[in-house]
Design goal:
- The protein has helices spanning 2-19, 35-50, 68-77, 109-117, 119-125, 156-159, 170-178, 191-196, 207-212, 238-241, 246-280, 291-297, 299-309, 311-318; strands at 22-27, 55-60, 82-86, 134-148, 163-166, 182-185, 202-205, 221-236, 284-286.
- With 322 residues, the protein is an alpha/beta fold.
- The protein has a single domain (3-318), classed as D-Maltodextrin-Binding Protein, domain 2, CATH 3.40.190.170.
- The protein binds (2R,3R)-2,3,4-trihydroxybutanoic acid.
- (2R,3R)-2,3,4-trihydroxybutanoic acid binds at residues 29-30, 68, 86, 88, 141, 167, 188, 205, 209, 230.
- One of its GO terms (cellular component) is outer membrane-bounded periplasmic space.
- InterPro entries: DctP_fam, TRAP_DctP, TRAP_DctP_sf.
- Residues 1-21 form the signal peptide.
């Protein structure tokens, strides 16, 4: 009897693993109510629907699986199954994504979506497998804005000398260095405390992130710099991907598309409605930015990007017709 129970148990387990059914671990850096959380939920529901409940997603929000760089490493070694992440640290794994991190490259959401959803975006996604990662879809973090605890920032001169946390991203660091800001690369989970303790004066993120991470508690000034569009990605571990049959792969891709659309919708809503909320929470908002002066001050950085990536690759994105 006892043996039979064990045997039955083992067989059940065997069957489960043969069929590949599993609850997958999906990590992200923000709260469940954020654009990443909304996306993960939409993706999970669609995936369960398309696979009749065979594949489900368990969410690990708020950096529970580590910072974005650590989570991407987790995908490579198979300790994490899925990640919704900004492109912040991804260029360290797939250098071509750095192209999308260039400041003032995308004019607006439409331009960004057309490029990322078209052949250029696909070409970058195709680079992931040879770097030990699977990229399912481009999502959205949004246009980034500068916050700080020292003073209102309207011009590059106002920003000079500030110590600003940047993502672990060479393209972003170069831009800040060029305008005389001291860039301090740091993983997102350390950021709130660093702002609170004054280790850095400021940071930059989309409105939805500033809200979700409660930065008004530690930052007084918000400048609507919109200095760079920040894409997001839905990434997957090859160790799970390689077990899927063609139909399942299609289901994951379709579910990721639904997740990405939900992410863009929520990030956009936050960008529209969030500034008012941030004012209510005590932030002083600078809206009359001298964007021309920022673009002008960034010229030496643009020259460096051209050297690094080739002007043609940058222009292909900048001048993309849609
Ligand atoms: O992905 O690290 C960052 O500033 C990111 O924008 C944030 O974690 C959301």
């Amino acid at each position: 009897m006892f043996m039979r129970t064990i045997l039955a148990g083992a067989m059940a387990l065997g069957l489960t693993s043969a069929a590949g059914a599993a609850e997958l671990k999906l990590g992200y850096s923000l709260a469940p109510t954020s654009h990443y959380g909304v996306s993960a939920t939409a993706m999970g529901e669609e995936l369960a629907r398309l696979t009749n409940g065979k594949w489900t997603i368990k969410q690990f929000p708020a950096n529970a699986l580590g910072g974005e760089r650590e989570m991407v490493e987790g995908l490579q070694i198979g300790t994490v199954d899925l990640v919704v992440t900004s492109t912040g640290p991804v260029g360290n794994f797939v250098p071509d994504t750095l192209l999308t991190d260039i400041p003032f490259l995308f004019r607006d959401y439409k331009h960004a979506h057309a490029v990322l959803d078209g052949p250029i975006g696909q070409r970058i996604l195709d680079q992931f497998p040879k770097n030990g990662l699977i990229a399912l879809a481009w999502g959205e973090n949004g246009f980034r804005n500068l916050t700080n605890s020292k003073r209102p920032i309207r011009t590059p001169d106002d920003a000079r000398g500030l110590k600003v946390r940047t993502m672990e991203n060479q393209v972003h660091m170069q831009a800040f260095r060029t305008i005389g800001v001291l860039p301090t690369p740091m993983a997102f989970p350390e950021l709130f405390t660093a702002l609170q303790q004054g280790t850095v004066d400021g940071q930059e993120n989309p409105i939805g992130v500033i809200l979700s991470a409660k930065f008004p508690q530690v930052q007084k000034y918000l400048s609507l710099t919109q200095h760079v569009y920040s894409p997001a990605l839905i990434l997957m571990s090859p160790s799970v991907w390689n077990k899927l049959d063609a139909k399942e792969k299609e289901a994951f891709q379709q579910a990721a598309k639904v997740g990405a659309a939900a992410m863009r919708k929520k990030a956009f809503e936050d960008a529209q409605n969030g500034v008012e909320e941030l004012r209510k929470q005590g932030m002083e908002v600078v809206t009359d930015l001298d964007r021309k002066a920022f673009e002008e001050a960034l010229k030496p950085a643009f020259a460096e990007y051209a050297k690094r990536f080739g002007q043609a690759k940058i222009d292909e994105i900048r001048n993309y017709q849609y």
